[in-house]
Amino acid sequence: MKQTTTVLPTFLLSIKEHSKGVKWYIAVTYLAGIIGLALPASREIFLQLTPFHLVSSMILLLLFDNNRNKIILNFAAFVLVYGFALEAVGVNTGIIFGNYVYGEALGPKIWGTPLLIGVNWFILSYSIGILISRIQLNKVLKIMLAAFMMTLIDVLIEPVAIGLNFWNWEGGVVPYRNYLGWFLGATVIFTLWFNIKHENSNRISNAILIAQVVFFGLLLLIL
């Protein structure tokens, strides 16, 4: 037990001291994902790696957060639960986003909803929140801009996710209600984000956000 409590912090600290290396790791893994998913021969293997990739990205974001308290952990817990609940209600009722079903790529499901879907909501909302926090705007405009940016990224994600069978829409068409649901859902998250006291600093959040945009942008062109 003593070894575990001593070695783990040292290991985590050593990672935090190598942000450039972590940024290269992010670039390489996302590039590998693009190539692996673009090639039919390797697509299934890389789809199975999706849950691991989501969780590892979230862990890295939390590791490099510069806050010294539990505020961000509480925020992360909220987004994980909120994102899952939103998707669970959405997929089972069709009220929030429209009628859709999840495939198997995002891992185990409860109520037809992947347990890890909240991780995706956290990665996007946290990275966007850090970015928009640096812009000189009033709080309301920051919330609206962040929610709009998150919705734009979903516009990019949707056709790729459908092509990879992450989820599928009734009739094969993404309804406008989905984007309204994303905007309103994100507005709740960013209202919380811009009303909690925390240090808006993370050395790798921009790298992950850019990697996500490039990842889905290139796969949109390829698939």
Q: What is the topological layout?
A:
Blueprint: H1 2-16, H2 19-38, H3 40-48, H4 50-64, H5 71-93, E1 100-102, E2 109-110, E3 113-114, H6 117-133, H7 139-163, E4 167-169, H8 176-193, H9 205-222
Antiparallel strand pairs: 1-4, 2-3
Question: Which terms summarize this structure?
Answer:
223 residues, 4% strand, mainly alpha, two-stranded antiparallel sheet, 9 helices, disordered N terminus
Could you characterize the architecture of this molecule?
Strands 1-4 form a two-stranded antiparallel sheet. Strands 2-3 form a two-stranded antiparallel ribbon. It has helices spanning 2-16, 19-38, 40-48, 50-64, 71-93, 117-133, 139-163, 176-193, 205-222, and strands at residues 100-102, 109-110, 113-114, 167-169. The chain has one domain. The chain is globular, with a radius of gyration of 18 Å. Helix 4 (50-64) packs parallel to helix 6 (117-133), helix 5 (71-93) packs antiparallel against helix 8 (176-193) and helix 7 packs across helix 8 (176-193). It is built from 9 helices and 4 strands. Residues 1-8 have low confidence and may be disordered. The longest helix has 25 residues, at 139-163. By secondary structure, the chain is mostly helical. Helices cover 72% and strands 4% of the residues.
* Beta-strand content estimate: under 5%
Euclidean distance between termini CA atoms: 48 Å
| SSE pattern | HHHHHEEEHHEHH
Would you count the extended β strands for me? 4
Number of domains: 1
Which segments are poorly predicted (pLDDT under 50) over 5 or more consecutive residues? 1-8
Determine the structural class based on helices, strands and strand pairing. mainly alpha
Round the mean pLDDT to the nearest integer and report it. Answer: 89
Supply the number of helical segments: 9
Q: If you compute it from the alpha carbons, what radius of gyration comes out, rounded to the nearest whole angstrom? A: 18 Å
Biggest sheet: strand arrangement: 1-4
Main sheet: strands, sense, barrel: 2 strands, antiparallel
| Approximate helicity band | over 70%
